[in-house]
TrEMBL record:
The keyword Lyase applies. It comes from Azospirillum humicireducens. One of its GO terms (molecular function) is D-serine ammonia-lyase activity. This is Alanine racemase. It comes from the Bacteria. Pfam families: Ala_racemase_N (PF01168), D-ser_dehydrat (PF14031). Gene3D superfamilies: Alanine racemase, D-serine dehydratase-like domain. Signal peptide: none annotated. GO terms for biological process: D-serine catabolic process. Keywords: Lyase, Plasmid.
Amino acid sequence: MLDDPMRNLSQALGLMDVGTPCLLLDRDRMDRNVRRLRQRLDRLGVTLRPHLKTAKSVDAAQQVMMSPSGPATVSTLKEAEQFADAGVRDLIYAVGVSPDKIDRILALRARGVDLAVTLDTVDQARAVAEASRRTGDPIPALIEIDCDGHRSGVLPADGATLVRIARSLEDGGRLRGVLTHAGASYGAVGDDALRHCAEVERASAVEAATLLREAGFACPVVSVGSTPTAHFAEALDGVTEVRAGVFVFFDLVMAGIGVCSIDEIALSVLATVIGHQPEKGWILVDAGWMAMSRDRGTSKQRIDQGYGLVCDINGKPFGDLILSDANQEHGIIALRPGTDARLPDLPIGTRVRILPNHACATGAQHGAYHVMRSGSDKIEAVWPRFGGW
């Protein structure tokens, strides 16, 4: 770990003192989650290049990166600029580059940031090469590989397209390698399925890199990454680095596919009970979708967690109590359909913690993490978050 950036409050606030809704971060759980993946990748012999799109916080990022200067991954140029301001110098912008963003990329590189871009078309490669020739700065790029049909990228066996992109890019720019993301792993069910996703991800990236090398192109970086595959890969032969992001905090989607347990989720939203509708079996809280997000990522899983799993103020789940519905600022707590559990007695003013479906989406609703330790009711620090593109 790097030096602790914990910003101690002059007078520690308790969980009954801070305004709600607010985003809580269990620092002990976060540290264990980071240590778990780091040790695993060390055994597999690859570098961790954490994806900072979930954290969107300099303080949080400093606890995840291998050094203050990186390496790291970002999904927006706002992230790249914010982390560059904090001294991060080794970044991959892992979203397909568009020509209108190249000037901002060049500005970051002029500041000494080794920022690489991602692309999967000849048109993008030509735009990057033209800007590189114009400025005399050969922008490094990774060709995105489609390993599972989830989103974008070149098919790994399509050597002709890979070579055309590489040739267009190197007319001014520089091919750094290939990059892929097993997005379909988020829908995998069971350990065997997750291990299969991890191997397909690895093999696809290595196949594409091999084709490029056989065509005479240097391909030093073979980058893979998703939180599920990072935790289930059995071998990473031919891979140089792994990108993952939500592993820092985990969430209910990750718990639902078996990547983590409920008690490893480090992020929650603190909310206050503001009303009751006993005839409907409802308890109302002040955390609606503006606090939790609209993400319903567990709706297709075996256990539907609604908008979040409800815990007591200490973070212990009540069981089958979920945030069953959400308006803008009202959350509706109810028992999961089909359960024989009883609705707990939660008087007005009671505080609860709600575990999120998707850490990235819920985090994006808040301007800061309120940092605490496991088993403590004190807020020890506030770590600012940022948004934007």
